[in-house]
């Protein structure tokens, strides 16, 4: 899920503006539960810890490269380090005043 963040530092070096859009907190990514479904516990647990360290390093590098960050909610914003670039909230969902269901006869 975070693999594409690998290119953020390279894009920054090339002079590109980098905007990181975060829809899920890294804290929600639990590889262990997924891996334990397919692998023995003795393999899944250390592999999960390794994957967590790798994704954390990739994520940190991408944040350092970003010019700004967009997040889906305040909870995600709160998980970011205080030295993160400017963070903008772009909520998930729909504006129910602008978008309303069509009347039954119009469907």
Describe the model.
The chain is mainly alpha-helical and 107 residues long. Helix content is 42%, strand content 10%. It is built from 4 helices and 3 strands; from the N terminus they run αβααβαβ. The chain has helices spanning 8-13, 31-38, 41-65, 74-79, and strands at residues 19-22, 68-71, 87-89. Strands 1-2-3 form a 3-stranded parallel sheet. Helix 4 links the parallel strand 2 (68-71) and strand 3 (87-89). It starts with 7 loop residues before the first helix and ends in an 18-residue tail after the last strand.
Order of SSEs? HEHHEHE
Give the strand tally: 3
Mean of pLDDT:
86
Task: Output the structural class.
Answer: mainly alpha
Shape field: flat
Instruction: Note poorly predicted spans.
Output: none
Radius of gyration: 19 Å
For the biggest sheet, the summary is: 3 strands, parallel
Total number of helices: 4
Strand content: 5-15%
Distance between the termini: 37 Å
* Helicity level: 40-55%
Kindly report the spatial arrangement of strands forming the biggest sheet. Answer: 1-2-3
Protein traits:
three-stranded parallel sheet, 4 helices, 10% strand, 3 strands, mainly alpha, 107 residues
What is the structure about, briefly put?
Helix content is 42%, strand content 10%.
Secondary structure layout plus pairing:
Elements (H helix, E strand, L loop, with lengths): L7 H6 L5 E4 L8 H8 L2 H25 L2 E4 L2 H6 L7 E3 L18
Parallel strand pairs: 1-2, 2-3
Helix pairs in contact: 2-3
């Amino acid at each position: 899920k975070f693999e594409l963040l690998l290119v953020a530092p390279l894009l920054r070096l090339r002079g590109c503006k980098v905007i990181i859009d975060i829809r899920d907190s890294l804290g929600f990514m639990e590889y262990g539960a997924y891996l334990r479904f397919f692998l023995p516990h003795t393999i899944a647990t250390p592999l999960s810890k390794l994957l967590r360290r790798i994704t954390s390093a990739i994520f940190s590098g991408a944040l350092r490269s970003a010019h700004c960050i967009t997040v889906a909610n305040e909870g995600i914003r709160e998980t970011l380090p205080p030295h993160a670039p400017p963070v903008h909230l772009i909520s998930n969902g729909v504006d129910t005043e602008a978008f309303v269901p069509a009347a039954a006869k119009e469907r």
